[in-house]
Amino acid sequence: MEIQFNTLLQKELTIHDIQKEMEAGKLTSKELVMYYLHRIAKYDQDGPKINSILEINPDAIFIAEALDHERKTKGVRGLLHGIPVLLKDNIETNDSMHTSAGTIALEQNISSEDAFLVKKLREAGAIILGKANMTELANGMSFEMWAGYSARGGQTINPYGTERMICLLVDRVQDLPLQLLLTLLYYPLEQRQMLLF
Q1: Exposed, middle or buried: residue 121 (CB in 10 Å: 0-12, 13-18, 19+)?
Q2: Residue 171 sits in which domain range?
Q3: Per the database record, which ranges form the Amidase domain (predicted)?
Q4: What is the pLDDT of residue 120?
Q5: 132, 182: one domain
C-alpha cells in the first residue's frame, strides 16, 4: 500500500510556490518533510539506491512541527521558513548528526555548534533534513578519486542514469582526450568498457 501525500507535492514546486501554499494553509512543513523522507527511503536507500544521503536529522519532523506552529503564531522568519535542506557532510551542525567529510576517521565526530552557513539557514527558518554523501574530504586527497565516492558513504549514483558516472575529477579536464571525456561522462558502464579497452 502506497503512502498518500498532499497532491500538491506531485508537482515540481519552487520555494516561492511552496511558501505560497504554506501561507494559504494548503501545505505544512511537516507534510513536506515527511514527503522528502519517504522519497529518500524509496529512491536513495531502496529502489535505484542512489546512495546520496548519509544521515537523516532525527529531529527533522519535530523541527517542522515547531516551525508550522511558529508560522501560525508569529509569522515567518524568512523565505526558507519550513523548507527542508540537506548539507554536505563537511558542514557542521549542532543537530544530532555526524560531520565526517565522508571519511571513516571522522565518522564519530558530532559538532557542538553550527557552521556560519547553518546559523544563517536556521535564521531564515530552514530545516536541516540531513547530511549528503560527498567525495571524501572534498577530494582533498587525490585528483584521481571518483567524484561522489567516500569511505563512509560509498559511491553516489547518478539518479538520471544509474549506469552512468556522476563525473571524474581531474586536475585539468582540457588535458583529457575528447573521446575519453565523452566516454566517461555519457556512456553506460558496459559501453565505456568496450570503447576504452
Answers
A1: buried
A2: 167-197
A3: 31-166
A4: 94
A5: no
**Is 44 in contact with 50 (CB distance < 8 Å)?**
yes
Contact 124, 85 (CB under 8 A): no
| E-state strands within 46-159 | 53-56, 84-88, 127-132, 149-150, 154-155
Residue 146 domain-assigned? no
The grid coordinates of residue 23 equal 501561507
User: Which phi and psi angles does 71 have, rounded to 5°?
Assistant: -60, -45
In a shared domain, residues 23 and 76: yes
For the chain, the average pLDDT equals 80
Q: Which of 133, 129, 89, 132 is nearest to 111 (CA)?
A: 89
Which residue positions in the chain have pLDDT lower than 50?
168-187, 191-197
**In this structure, are residues 145 and 169 in contact, taking their beta carbons and an 8 Å threshold?**
yes
Q: What pLDDT score does 63 carry?
A: 98
Q: How far is CA 18 from CA 65, 70, 85, in A?
A: 16, 17, 14
Rounded to whole angstroms, the Cα distance separating 118 from 92 reads 8
SS3 150: strand
Give the H or E element holding residue 88. strand 84-88
DSSP conformation class of 119: H
According to the model, what pLDDT value does residue 141 have?
60
